[in-house]
Amino acid sequence: NAGVTQTPKFQVLKTGQSMTLQCAQDMNHEYMSWYRQDPGMGLRLIHYSVGAGITDQGEVPNGYNVSRSTTEDFPLRLLSAAPSQTSVYFCASSASAFRVGTEAFFGQGTRLTVV
Amino acid sequence: AQKITQTQPGMFVQEKEAVTLDCTYDTSDPSYGLFWYKQPSSGEMIFLIYQGSYDQQNATEGRYSLNFQKARKSANLVISASQLGDSAMYFCAMREGKGAQKLVFGQGTRLTINP
Q1: Which of A32, A40, B23, B81 would staple B92 via disulfide (CB 3.0–4.6 Å)?
Q2: Interchain proximity B35–A92, CB inside 8 Å
């Protein structure tokens, strides 16, 4: 019953470093997405994918890259970490990319601190 | 423009009382879905309840019900007989028919249940 798995759970980066947050789902879901959660701002969409090979930008894409080479994996890359990217990151997946009633399943989150 | 608005940053309720968490939304799409998620202090996102724009009846799931007032564009979550374990952040979210890929969240309401 793995669902959506995110690694790592915690990470501290220095300004300017790059890293990749991993996300994998075992439910054969079409749709995957990345959110960041900051105090008082809810969850904001960074990037999303409606299937392997297809990605698009969300509300706050700057400083992040994604790719989706397989249905299962959707890594999020921070190109050059900045303190403003300190946040909690959630990966989510849904069975359908286009049905409004599709429930989103979330990973446990990654708490990232950039110093 | 803010698509989802939760106007109550924090709420305090006595155990066993009912509580209503407010959510208003903004869309011109006739097809949309509204979701409520719970985030306890452990951080995971837990799906609670869903309401579709074409649903004739208000959604209910155990102690959770959704007071859906389409003309007022509100989708308030009602928790009956609150329990200490209901203390958490609660997020309202919406997915629109045209942009069904994007699940947009409100800022959240922190609910505290007092014994």
Answers
A1: B23
A2: no
